């Protein structure tokens, strides 16, 4: 069941069937380090820590800005209301998608700490077991048509759920060892009606493939894209 804690400067939403730890402390990487429950990490804008909960592993992320602006006020955002904050919004968006059977991490808990007119945010979500992002996989091998179809299916389902993924790139798509595709990183994403924006998500994804061909020599070609797009439209 979803529970919330609301105090003057603190808001937490969590699923009490997934986490039974000290909920006020479980957003701090140090807490998990002291308990020797950190199982790994990944770096994107910041560090995502993987931690072992009772039954599942979780990914712990502190929200940070990218770019030059981010170097100045790296992790503070202007506060307009608890439900508008980065982590609470992502938590609820993941819940919506999960309930519609889209392969996204199950949200576990979100925290917002208010500091004057600004806030800091953290999210705990399920770590997708036995999965790697497409960039890592494509540096080692090509994907086959069935794998591209699995990726297309999840993008299609996300779009049928009317969720606009504003950062749909190949770092944010994972493939597990069972051949399931997963979409992650819904920071700044939102529900949107209509169809026009869907093409924008796909264009961004295509740019990402092209970029990584040059940057990391990924094993990908235009035939692969045609396969993905064909499956998306089926
Ligand atoms: N739920 C998850 N399961 C498995 N790996 C994850 C998960 N969340 C993040 N990662 C890994 O961490 C990286 C960075 O996380 P992400 O949520 O995309 O944050 P950002 O891009 O803002 O740094 C991802 O590219 C992925 O490799
Ligand atoms: Mg990302």
Question: Per the principal axes of the C-alpha atoms, what is the gross shape?
Answer: globular
Associated small molecules: adenosine-5'-diphosphate, magnesium ion
Tell me the helix content.
Answer: 25-40%
The H/E string reads: EEHEEEHEHEEEHHEEEEHH
Head-to-tail CA distance between termini: 36 Å
Low-confidence stretches: none
Radius of gyration: 18 Å
Taking all residues together, what is the mean pLDDT?
96
User: Strand portion, in percent?
Assistant: 25-35%
Structural class: alpha+beta
* Strand segment tally: 13
Task: Explain what the structure shows.
The chain has 234 residues and is α+β, with helices and mostly antiparallel strands. It has two domains: 2-126; 131-232, Transferase(Phosphotransferase) domain 1 (Transferase(Phosphotransferase), domain 1, Orthogonal Bundle). Helix content is 35%, strand content 27%. It is built from seven helices and 13 strands. The strands form three sheets. Strands 1, 2, 3, 4, 5, 6, 7 and 8 form an eight-stranded antiparallel sheet that branches. Helix 5 packs across helix 7 (222-232). The longest helix has 21 residues, at 196-216. The termini are far apart. The model has no long low-confidence stretch (mean pLDDT 96). The chain binds adenosine-5'-diphosphate and magnesium ion. Adenosine-5'-diphosphate binds next to strand 5, strand 8 and strand 9.
């Amino acid at each position: 069941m979803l529970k919330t804690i609301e105090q003057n400067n603190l808001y937490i939403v969590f699923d009490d069937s997934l986490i039974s730890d000290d909920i006020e402390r479980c957003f701090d990487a140090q807490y998990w380090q002291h308990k020797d429950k950190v199982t790994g990490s990944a770096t994107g804008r910041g560090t995502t820590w993987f931690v072992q909960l009772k039954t599942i592993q979780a990914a712990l992320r502190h929200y940070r800005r990218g770019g030059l602006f981010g170097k100045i006020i790296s992790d503070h955002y202007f506060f307009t209301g608890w439900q508008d904050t980065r982590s609470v919004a992502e938590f609820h968006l993941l819940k919506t998608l999960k309930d519609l059977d889209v392969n996204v991490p199950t949200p576990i808990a979100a925290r917002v700490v208010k500091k004057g007119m600004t806030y800091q945010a953290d999210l705990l979500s399920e770590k997708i077991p036995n999965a790697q992002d497409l960039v890592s996989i494509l540096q080692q091998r090509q994907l086959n048509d069935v794998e591209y179809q699995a990726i297309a299916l999840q993008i299609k389902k996300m779009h049928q759920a009317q969720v606009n993924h504003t950062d749909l790139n190949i770092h944010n798509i994972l493939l597990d060892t069972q051949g399931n595709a997963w979409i992650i990183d819904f920071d700044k994403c939102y529900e949107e009606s209509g169809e026009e924006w869907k093409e924008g998500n796909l264009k961004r994804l295509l740019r990402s493939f092209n970029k990584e061909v040059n940057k990391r020599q990924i094993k990908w070609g235009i035939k692969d894209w045609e396969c993905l797009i064909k499956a998306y439209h089926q």
